[in-house]
Write a structure and sequence with these properties.
InterPro entries: DUF3822. This is DUF3822 family protein. The chain is of the alpha/beta class. The chain is about 25% helix and about 35% strand. The chain has two domains: about 170 residues, Nucleotidyltransferase, domain 5; about 90 residues, Protein of unknown function DUF3822, C-terminal domain (Nucleotidyltransferase, domain 5). It has eight helices and 15 strands. The strands form three sheets. Strands 1, 2, 3, 4, 5, 9 and 15 form a seven-stranded mixed sheet that branches. Strands 12-11-10-13-14 form a five-stranded mixed sheet, with helices on both faces. The protein has a three-stranded antiparallel sheet with strand order 6-8-7. β2 and β3 form a beta hairpin. α6 packs parallel to α7.
């Protein structure tokens, strides 16, 4: 392992509930999220539906997943909790822009590469094409994941069946849970990261749109949001927009967003989980996608 690369990570957030009990790990769900510049994890008690642990790391950007992996390995090697192998469930979410949503009626297991070909280049030597079926939404999310990560995680937890999903799958499950079943009104959800935004639109319990857009400035961000609203004939004066992720209430993006959209608000924490006082300093809308990875079953 390259010692220089392996130490280029930084812990930016840690919250631990005093109710965490290492003797109860067999009742806990471990959710991991890996992207090009982030690795996050949270732990929640499946019996009590209580979030017990959260950590967020920034990773130094690398040219490939193989070069980035030593940083993640170093985090694991220095973390006695992540070394544990007797979790009840483990889910791993891959945070990237490569994915394709296929209607359930059209999905075929032997066409995975073809589904991705129009929207993303996939290197068959370094990437494994995976898929996750959203039973309630009647769609399948097809996405590539780096072999370096999938093989390493499987070797790390050899006695567990890992749930490997794309980050948009957690957002889809979350958005549908936050939509009213009988409503004919469209609702937009934005999950913001430092350099990209995931945009989802629902109408009742139907997913009408899901995509991930890169942005480098405020103007790009506003353009993509307004473009989607216009394409889907949403009303910026009345239709609701929910914000999740890495956006602060005093940020220029939020201020500009509010100029164009009147019914915009930050999301609350997932209602299916409880949180102790240790999480009080965390903004409710942050880490929503991570908290909802376990919904992908």
């Amino acid at each position: 392992m390259n010692s220089t690369l392996s130490t280029n990570y930084h812990l930016t957030q840690k919250v631990k509930d005093e109710q965490f009990d290492i003797d109860r790990i067999s009742y806990y769900h471990l959710s991991l999220q890996v992207g090009t510049t982030r690795m996050r994890f949270c732990i929640h008690d499946l019996q009590k539906n209580r979030c017990l642990w959260l950590e967020d790391y920034t990773l130094a950007p690398q040219e490939s997943a193989e070069m980035q992996l030593p940083q993640v390995q170093a985090i694991f090697e220095s973390h006695h909790i992540l070394q544990a192998g007797f979790w009840k469930e483990i889910s791993i979410s891959f945070l990237n822009r490569k994915f394709s949503l296929i209607p359930a009626s059209l999905f075929q297991d032997d066409h995975l590469a073809a589904y991705l070909r129009p929207i993303a280049s996939v290197d068959s030597n370094t990437e494994q094409i995976l898929h996750f079926k959203h039973i309630g939404a009647d769609i399948t999310n097809v996405f590539p994941a780096p072999y370096a990560y999938t093989q390493w995680f499987k070797a790390k937890y050899p006695n567990k069946t890992l749930r490997l999903v794309h980050n948009t799958s957690a957002l889809i499950e979350a958005a549908l849970r936050n939509s009213e079943p009988a409503s004919n009104t469209k609702k937009m959800f934005l999950c913001i990261e430092e350099s990209h935004v995931s945009i989802l639109v629902t109408r009742g319990k139907v997913l009408e749109f899901c995509n991930v857009f890169p942005y480098s400035n405020d103007a790009d961000f506003i353009y993509f949001v307004m473009f989607v609203m216009d394409e889907l004939k949403m009303n910026p004066d009345s239709d609701m927009v929910i914000l999740w992720g890495e956006l602060m209430p005093n940020s220029p993006i939020y201020e500009k967003l509010y100029r164009y959209i009147r019914n915009v608000q930050f999301g609350n924490r997932p209602s299916m989980l409880s949180f102790g006082y240790q999480f009080d300093e965390q903004l409710d809308h942050r880490y929503y996608d991570l908290f909802c990875v376990h919904l992908c079953k």
